[in-house]
Model the fold of this input.
Amino acid sequence: AASPQRLDRRAVLHVGTAMTAAPIQRFLAVEEDSLKRQGVRSPTFLGRRSHYAFAAYANEQVAEVLAIDPGPDWAAWRATFRSEVLDAMDDDADWVVSSEEFGTRLGSRGLDEIITLLRDAGFARVEIVAYVQRQDRLAARMHLQSLDQGHLNPFDIDEDLEHSGRYDTALALQRMQATSADDVLIRLFPDRPNMTPLVHDFCDTIGVDRPVEAEWGTDRLLNVPAAEFVRQLNAALPRRDQDGNLIPGIANPAEVLKSGFTEESFQLATKESDALMARYRESNEWVMAQVPEELRVEDYFDPRPAPENRPPLTVADAVEMTASLWR
Done:
């Protein structure tokens, strides 16, 4: 029998910008029992597909990019997924769905497909929560993500400036505001010590208890200037261990090089940062006006101290640092 449903149920879509969704998703998974006691659930029933399958539901091309294999008939897979979601959400809880794919791969039409699905599941209110970031920080994090996924293209400021909409946060927010969501809650990504940590801010926004543990995943980035470094590092590491067994190369440099050697964030040089922030100055002024007045940080998008150059890591240093992993 179907569970009785509250008539005021709420669903929250966290539309993530690059690398903001993972800490929130980890929090939702680790604190699953605590959140259930507070009447909040997330789509852990989907297993590893978790949140991003909703983006595949919204768009067939996205399903292909995300390597979700619905078989030859995407419409049939979509119908099955819809049924699975409606069955799981047939309760009286509020739900939270978080995905970077919502922000990077879907427009307003795709987001509305998900919102409609949630309304069909019985939610009286659907809200979007989004965190905006500085363009120089976003560019640096996207560059790291590209390296982390094995793409061998170093960051190039000229190339990034050629893509006029790549980091235009205003366009992304306008797509969200064009949906049928009941509210779009715009927050500033906490990138300085005096701001509330991301997970705690998200808890405050959706009205749940903050976890005892404040950190959900590190916020460290590799100070890696080019993928050529990764290629050379693979070549320099020993190929066999002491027993003669083959040692795999570095499939995921971010995992291997997460140590004290990488405490500093990957940053753009001063000229790169200034150029990127200047391009989006008017856009950022509009964005700040969308943030609730009490949450605004007036100098958030202002120029910041940055290194004159991005100092390269040497292969020798990295090999020395990682040597213990291969003994």
User: Anything to note?
Assistant: The longest strand covers residues 125-132. Strands lie at 10-15, 40-41, 94-99, 125-132, 183-188. Confidence is low (pLDDT under 50) at residues 214-227, 250-265, 321-327.
